[in-house]
Amino acid sequence: MPTTEPHRTEPCGTRSPASTARPPPTGSTTSSPSSPDARASTRSNWSFSPTAVERARLLAERTGLPATFVEADTQRLPDGLAGRFDLVVATYGILCWIGDLDAWMRGAAMALRPGGSLILVDLHPAFQTVATIEPLVVDWPYGGGEPHRDTVTGTYAEPGLSLPAQDVVEYPHSIGEIVTAAATAGLTVQHLGEHMAAQFDPRGILPRSPDGLYRLPFGDSHLPVMYSLRARAPERPTA
């Protein structure tokens, strides 16, 4: 889960025959503290990748940005993070790496102070089902949450680079499953947007339209490429 300064992780759903892979998931979450003074100056980022945490710390030191980096599994966040944040933001390549969607949503809800918000922006499950555009081939489940394994030999960060084969595991979650998980965690969904165009092609398969945006053609129409969700933690009861 990332926040105000979105942390972009590896995009989901790039599979064979493209053979473009992601590194192991980081489970990152960046959050804004609820203290007014701290909120103006600091961010917290959680990741279960020690390499990602160390590199992020070095980058923060180099740039002079005040930030805290915590090594943790976002499906099992430490109790010490409970109720500390105004905002939890997760963007681009998040939930495909999460086996326990309910636990991830509970972690986001737990970290928020009363009235705080979760902002989630990710690849749309419909887009993730598509393997190729020309011809249109769909080879991935729309949802269900079951683990699906693939072997890949590259990385989105360097498309032309060939790497030793590695196994990856992803978990497809439908829009309905995502919204239900948020509600079950006690959050109130205030917005759900399904976006037909994107400013970048996260999987390297979309045609670019004359207006410079990327779209997923489907007959004479388009399928959504991205979705955005805003959900709010309940306010503290008043006496």
Provide tags for this entry:
alpha+beta, 7-stranded mixed beta sheet, 239 residues, single chain, 3-stranded antiparallel beta sheet, 5 helices
How are the SSEs ordered, and which strands pair?
Elements lengths: L28 E5 L2 H4 L3 E5 L2 H14 L3 E5 L13 E7 L9 H11 E12 L1 H4 L1 E3 L4 E2 L9 E5 L13 E5 L4 H10 L3 E8 L1 E2 L15 E5 L2 E3 L2 E7 L7
Parallel strand pairs: 2-3, 4-5
Antiparallel strand pairs: 1-2, 1-4, 5-14, 6-7, 8-9, 10-14, 11-12, 12-13
Helix pairs in contact: 3-5
Care to give the gist of this entry?
This protein is of the alpha+beta class and 239 residues long. Helix content is 18%, strand content 31%. It contains five helices and 14 strands.
Q: Care to describe what's here?
A:
The chain has 239 residues and is of the alpha+beta class. The chain is 18% helix and 31% strand. It contains five helices and 14 strands. It has helices at 36-39, 50-63, 101-111, 125-128, 175-184, and strands spanning 29-33, 43-47, 67-71, 85-91, 112-123, 130-132, 137-138, 148-152, 166-170, 188-195, 197-198, 214-218, 221-223, 226-232. The strands form four sheets. The chain has a seven-stranded mixed beta sheet, sandwiched between helices. Helix 3 links the parallel strand 4 (85-91) and strand 5 (112-123). The longest helix has 14 residues, at 50-63. It is globular, with a radius of gyration of 18 Å.
